[in-house]
Amino acid sequence: MENSEIVTVKDLIKRYPIGKGEFTALNGIDLTFGTGEFAGIVGPSGSGKTTLLNIIGSLDIPTEGSVVVLGKSIRELNHKQAALLRRKHMGFIFQTFNLLPVYTVYENVEFPLLLLKLSAAEKKKAVMDSLEWLGLTDKMKSRPAQLSGGECQRVAIARAMVKKPELVLADEPTANLDSENSHHILQTMENLNKDLQTTFIFATHDDKVIKYLKRKILIEDGKVSADDVITN
Would you say the pTM of this structure is higher than 0.70? Predict the structure, then answer.
């Protein structure tokens, strides 16, 4: 399944100051993710999974150790370089959708392309392809307030996939969805993973998500306590 390393995490430690002391959120993490993985970082609230996802996504930096994403060391990137890495190579899916309410579905999906050097025709094709993948072409002129929760999350996925990123990071993407919508969303992401060989990394404690994972990494108290490939 994997033909190259997308993410390499070595001896990762992340501490946050609290009062006069500090809190260790991650304590000696070693992980590697390859092309085309469909993996999940699972564990209870406060275990460190979202912190790890944020560091992989260059939204935070390690206190110690190294995280290399697509050949770039996260600790060595300045703000501009980190933003460029995210803009060109990553997609993000959050539980709160983060759609822009005044824009249409089409405009929300187009948004990540506006900072890339693409022609109008290239942008239009990328947006229409993404809307088609997610079954949203009939909603392209609607605004988020006119959509259901499941439809909003599909727009968020379309926005994440529109530039065909090598890596998609999804933080509790089904937390605000019912069971039926959750399964539809997860099947869609599974299909995109297979069709485009995009690497998906989830942070979740949702059993509905965990059932779809091909690899489950359990984090407890900031440490990896299990790392299992699921073959069913």
Answer: yes
